[in-house]
Amino acid sequence: MNGQQPFSFEFFPPKTPEGAEKLRGVRDLLARVDAEFFSVTFGAGGSTRDGTWATVMEIQAAGLPAAPHISCVGIRRAEIAELLEGYRAAGIRRLVALRGDAPSGAAGGSGDFRYASELVEFIRACSGDWFHIEVACYPEVHPQSRTPQDDLRHFVAKISAGANSAITQYFYNADAYFRFRDDAAQMGCTVPIVPGIMPITNYSQLARFSDACGAEIPRWVRRRLESFGDDRQAIRAFGLDVVAALCERLLAAGAPGLHFYTMNQAQPALDIWQRLGLPQARARA
Questions:
Q1: Distance CA 76, CA 90 (A)
Q2: Domains of the chain (ranges, CATH numbers)
Q3: How many CA atoms lie within 13 A of 41 on its CB side?
Q4: 276/255 Cα distance (integer angstroms)
Q5: What is the pLDDT of residues 165-216, one digit of tens each?
Q6: Alpha-carbon torsion 54, 58, 60, 65, what sign?
């Protein structure tokens, strides 16, 4: 492993001053590994719009590469155009463009966009080639897709609309990623598809997330995690073994980098980084 593949980390906007201070410490620790970018999520229907903006601007002001998420469900074109103008003025060069979810209890069709491909097309129309656009994909199939083939067609439509690369939903089955990557390539999609990596630190939380988003936890992993009960140390140690082995296999087979879902924590991702034997960053100017 040569450590040349790019790596990135995802944060969510903190809701309290204490959370913001904690995230600054997390950001500073992760800055040591020379990330390609730090992305910041955008809540359902833009519910964290202001928090996303503030977090992105703080990351950018610290001299680190920031990539705001923009989701389009429940959002009007004028709002997206305003965000794009602001991010461009701030020197942001990368976006993560998503369909997203409607806020709880809200109608899913209240915005001007139905699909992420429409959002990508709109960003290109507004901003040309200024932004590098990331989109999402689901190696284990989006939970709302009718068929795997339908899901793959939607993904390719986002690339055709102008996306530069993709980040996957997290998964623990490397074969699902390889199959999705190969199937996309057969449809003429050759952009980088970066695996999304979720460290395992809290089994009950992970099970909830996975059941909601359709990410499979292999049965043998579930049973082992269940057997540890409330032993957080054992869960983290076993989780590190599982996820580090997954990352090793992905990188060895040509994955174009890794994107870590940090849950606003530094140490789980750093533990994986160290297990993989990857280098620390050069000192920043």
A1: 22
A2: 7-275 (3.20.20.220)
A3: 19
A4: 14
A5: 999 999 999 999 999 999 999 999 999 999 999 999 999 999 999 999 999 9
A6: negative
Pairing mode of beta strands 258-261, 193-197? parallel
Q: What is the DSSP string of 144-175?
A: T-SSHHHHHHHHHHHHHTT--EEEEEE-S-HH
CA 97 – CA 110 distance, rounded (Å): 18
Q: Which pTM value belongs to this model?
A: 0.92
Q: Classify each residue of 245-258 as buried b or exposed e, where b means 16 or more C-beta atoms within 10 Å of its C-beta.
A: ebbbebbeeebbbb
Question: At 282, phi and psi to the nearest 5?
Answer: -70, 155
Residues 6+ apart with CB under 8 A from 183: 152
Q: What are 45-96's pLDDT values in tens digits?
A: 556 688 999 999 999 999 999 999 999 888 899 999 999 999 999 999 999 9
Burial class (CB in 10 A: 0-12, 13-18, 19+), 104: exposed
Q: What tokens appear for 67 in the block? A: 């990539």
Q: Which residues are catalytic?
A: 10
Rounded to an integer, what distance in angstroms lies between the CA atom of residue 210 and that of residue 214?
Answer: 6
- The amino acid at 282: R
Q: Measuring CA to CA, which residue among 63, 81, 85 is closest to residue 72?
A: 81
- 166 within 8 A of 191, measured Cβ to Cβ: yes
Task: For the beta carbon of residue 135, count every other beta carbon within 10 angstroms.
Answer: 27
Quickly count helices (H) and strands (E) in the chain. Answer: 10, 8
Question: What is the token pair recorded at 157?
Answer: 């439509």
